[in-house]
Amino acid sequence: MIAIIAALDVELSPLERRAKAKRCPSPPWPPTREGTLAGRQVLVARTGMGSARAQEATSALIQHHSPEAILSIGLAGSLTDELRVGHLVIARQVYALHEPFHEGPLAASNGLACDPALVELAVAAARQRRLAFREGVSLTVPQVIDQPEVKRRIGDSLPVEMVEMESYWVGRVAADQGIPFLIVRVILDELGDRLPDLPNTVDETGAIARSRALRHLLSRPGQIPALVRLAVNTRRASQRLAVFAEAFVGSWPPRIIPGVKNERDSTENRR
What we know:
- There is one protein chain.
- Helix 1 (9-19) crosses helix 7 (224-250) and helix 2 (51-65) packs parallel to helix 5 (167-176).
- The chain starts with a strand and ends with a helix.
- The protein has helices at 9-19, 51-65, 116-128, 148-157, 167-176, 210-219, 224-250, 263-270; strands at residues 2-6, 22-23, 32-37, 40-46, 69-78, 88-96, 112-113, 133-140, 162-164, 181-189.
- 38% of the residues lie in helices and 23% in strands.
- Strand 8 (133-140), helix 4 and strand 9 (162-164) form a beta-alpha-beta unit.
- It is an alpha/beta fold.
- Strands 5-9-8-6-10 form a 5-stranded mixed beta barrel.
């Protein structure tokens, strides 16, 4: 079974509806649902934001469900002029910044490579659904990067195209457990975009704290137009992730294990 992991409820909601996913009774963490995409069973799990929760949730998911592969999805910020809102990025590799962003030289971790067979399947799935996409490299960071000048500096300093907060740590746990993984993100904010300030509007589990969000809006009515645009872009991006995930799961060959040749090919090669 394929496990699909994201940090936030808004990143998973369209996918859960498409899969008609129902809550698994255990474990209590991470919140996990089981559903069906393209006639195949999938697990859908929400980790919450940041490295610690991503690692904890991925470890628990592997321990209790033993997925055959993990697909890490979500929203991301662009670090290049070429990536626009709504573009799908299929990551070949992911790096991480271990320390919060500062003015000194940037030092990223050694990269983790996504499973090549999964990348190939993802490219085919994106083409099948005619989604605007590119292959790229992701950078996982310990804080929200919401300023254009910071995004530009990161893009100029490191060989990466997008920035997010969890994928490296999901991939690190998966790799340590021998589980093939893939990272696919949709661009929410472009290189020149400045995200509106949204303090404490998402709780530690990745769910929207609606009362906090409402209080924030009432205290800063001037931000409402920017927040409306952000909400529209978020909904469209999450829907695109759901469309991609369904195509990806539907293209999953029944007898192929990522990174291993299928049985028929191996037999033919021996002849």
